[in-house]
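REQUEST FORM: STRUCTURE PREDICTION
Request ID: SP-0412
Submitted by: Lab K.M.
Chain count: 1
Length (residues): 614
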Amino acid sequence: MQSRRSPSPLSVHSPRNSKSPLSSREFREKKIGLPGADLRGIEITIADELRRVKFHPDYNRKECYLVYKQAFDQLIESKAVVYKSILSQIKAEYEEFIETLERGESQTVYLQGMLKALLSEKANVRHVVQRGDELVEKMAKLKTHNTQLRQKLHAIRAERARRIASAESKSMHSVVKETRLLIPGLSLGDLTDISSLKRTLTRLEAQVKELKEATTTKFAEKGQKQILKQQLAKKETGRDHEFTNHEKLQDSCETLKVAIEAARSVVDNPDQDVHIVDVIFRELANYGNSKYGKKSDSLQFFASFDEDDPLKKKEAERLIEYVDHFNNLFDFGQFELAAMHAANSPMGILRNYETMIKFKQAEVREGEVSPLLIFCDALMATASAAQPLTGAMSSECIRCALSQGRLDLATHWLAQEKLTYSIPLGDAFHSYCKCEQNCTCTCLPLAQTIYMKVGAHHQVVACLCKQQKFSIMLNYAQKHAKFTTEDYRAILLRNPSPELAKLMLSSPGPDRRVGLLSFASVVGALLDDNQHKMLLNVLQHLSQSNAEDLSAVMTDALFNETKSDNMDADRWVQVVDMCKEVGLLEIGVEILSMLTIRDALNKASIAFSMDYIS
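STATUS: Completed
RESULT:
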């Protein structure tokens, strides 16, 4: 068996080779100088080397081990050949055992670390399980508490219903029975005083006597009361009928007086070349205009005040002849004469929308004026501010003039105040305007004026927005129109503009909140309409505002966001990403801050609620 000799510990095993107190060279010199059989010399050498090692500042147990190892090697070489092999085996076994111990020590450190990890993992699992059990127990307590509260609520509701039913079921007899021992108006001292009770009895007997007398003299039976009411109603109906007949007769007398005075004026002035009937109807028309304000209705009323009047049949024949003459002129294409004839028709029988449609359907000859425009001009020439055209006829006249390119004529008619304002009339001017931004044709201001007079608030807002007059529009809407939040959202989507959005955010609403629209409402509306570019323009416009305005907008977004705004965390993050792409970092940071604060507030509210419940 070969001896297992390890390499020199001073050159391989020692990590402090350069700092060892016993270098290999010195040890070799000592090894050569020592006699092989001198065991005493080996012991002295070991003692000297151990002393040097222990006094060295880097002393450790491994240095001592190296000293004994070298001495053992020297002993093996110095002994006879007979002991050399067995000593080498012993040395090899010891070295192997020592290496095993060193490996075990390193593995012990590793295993200790693994053991600590396993112990901590077990503790973590135990804590998680314990926390889960606590939460389950807490949920069970909450469910039990909720069940108890629900039972208490049902019991309170049942008790309340029982008390209400009991109170309603009590009769007046029971109430009187309970209060029988008490006399209203008397104190406890009066109830025990005999003289006071006698005075009260005398007073009550007098009141009872008065009530009995009043029952027989001042009151009647219920059936008799109904009979008297019916008789009174009949008398009032007869009185009203007599008053109505009296008023009719009085109006007829006044009308007759006007007609008689007009006829006398014609008789007293025979030189005037006028017909007496024309003078009478003209005076009647003036009288009706001053009294009723409507020419046609008053004339029909005045003409029918006497059904037995022989002039009625003659007037009907005259009207038929008048209409026939108009039809002849129209059929022969004499539109100017037919228009003037219809415009001056008696009692306005041809001044109606049907006649206007007839002129509208007439064939327009090349190079000539439209027959409808001729009739409209004739109507406007014979109309007055007191007797304007109807709404349908007014809008048709304006549309006809604008279709012929006669804006000046339409403006002139409108200035004469002979038209009835209506939404279709304003629509005619609004649709005629082709200006992009600033209206130079004055059609939009005219349409705006018409809409204002008829109270068409949405159309007024559309005109102002088209003229970029956003501030005036919002003032008008707040003062005259009762717009809702959805109306303002619709206005913003129809007229997308950063300036309009900023005004809606900053203008105080009816409830004195930050703006007519919240920041979340503006962002949600533009996102729903896929107007991302306009949304970025609005955000850029806001980022250029001062810090106070921006803070107010973000505060509004934090506290005034509603479900109708259709904004959630994902959509806000989408807005932040859009801001990041175009470089609006400041507004993006503000939005993220707002979301963070709101999330923290929600969590705090939930935690407070849970603590309160528990």
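NOTES: Confidence is low (pLDDT under 50) at residues 1-37, 295-308.
Reviewed by: T.R.
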